[in-house]
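Input.
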Amino acid sequence: MARATWNGVVIAESDTYELIEGNVYFPPASVNRELLKDSTHQTVCPWKGRASYFDVVADGDVNEAAAWYYPEPKERAENIKDHVAFWKGVVVET
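Output.
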């Protein structure tokens, strides 16, 4: 079981996930989308493609660009399409 929390609030929880480069990628259905707000932030990974970001909002606090996903990953990363990973203080336990 993997779980992502911030400010004591569970953002994602799943028995299945992808582990890539030390990051847990949660399946889309396991993420509480009510806690995520679209961000304009984007980055590019040479082998995964362009990442889009979410702000995490919990208990009235905003953690900007603390979650990311690949809506159109490159072929080598197709297994994480739309899966969500976290950083910037979000605690991920496996």
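The CA atoms of residues 49 and 73 lie 5 Å apart.
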